[in-house]
Write a sequence for this structure.
């Protein structure tokens, strides 16, 4: 779990040239792609489905993709995204009546299992499912939109989750998603985050320059940590 990964959320990409936008950020140094699925029911926004993921894979984009499903119901979507090429599938506990069963469906479809925790959701439920998890997605914004303000109470939540992950002795990625800008990164790294999910800060500026700055901060942090 040493390598700290940059996962670019494509919600702020230019969808008319999505494949090229993704190839660019990967070329500039992004490690993963964060694919935000929204259904205008669980969240008040609508994005893309498994066909778009499939076309990204057909465009020869092979890096890990974390499919963040903000949709309810969710169970029936899991096999579709797994077949379309998801590596991780991350769901919200509020989007299913039976969280244990839904996490089993993700695993049975050959994907790594992620659970997303909204800012107002207590983390207590994690204890009962931590043995199933490969990733915890800590939402630093309310889900549904990019370009929102990072919620600073996230840091407290990261520390609580970090303790649970260490106790579990499992290899579980701690990922933070929403509103992340350069000034948040050092604090996030010190808190023990493994994956930084960043969208608008990259795509709304000069992606090459911003990704370079982010990767530099990660490099410096790793150097000091050694
Ligand atoms: C919000 C999504 C996030 C968001 C991140 O519901 O889950 O992935 O798109 O984008 P920024 O970095 O713009 O907040
Ligand atoms: Zn997301």
């Amino acid at each position: 779990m040493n390598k700290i990964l940059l996962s670019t959320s494509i919600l702020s990409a230019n969808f008319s040239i999505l494949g090229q936008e993704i190839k660019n950020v990967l070329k500039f140094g992004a490690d993963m792609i964060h694919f935000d699925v929204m259904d205008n029911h669980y969240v008040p926004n609508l994005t893309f489905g498994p066909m778009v993921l499939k076309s990204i894979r057909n465009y020869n984009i092979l890096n890990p993709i974390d499919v963040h499903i903000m949709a309810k119901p969710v169970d029936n979507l899991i096999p579709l995204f797994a077949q379309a090429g998801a590596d991780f599938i991350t769901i919200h506990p509020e989007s299913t009546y039976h969280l244990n069963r839904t996490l089993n469906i993700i695993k049975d479809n050959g994907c790594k299992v992620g659970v997303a925790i909204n800012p107002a959701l207590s983390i207590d439920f994690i204890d009962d499912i931590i043995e199933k998890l490969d990733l915890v997605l800590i939402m630093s914004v309310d889900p549904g939109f990019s370009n929102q303000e990072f919620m600073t109470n996230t840091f407290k939540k990261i520390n609580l989750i970090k303790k649970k992950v260490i106790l579990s002795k499992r290899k579980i990625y701690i990922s933070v998603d929403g509103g992340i800008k350069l000034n948040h990164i050092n604090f996030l790294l010190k808190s023990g985050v493994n994956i930084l999910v960043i969208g608008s800060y990259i795509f709304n500026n000069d992606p090459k320059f911003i990704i370079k700055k982010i990767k530099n901060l990660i490099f410096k942090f790793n150097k000091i940590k050694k």
Residues 44 and 144 are 6 Å apart (CA to CA).
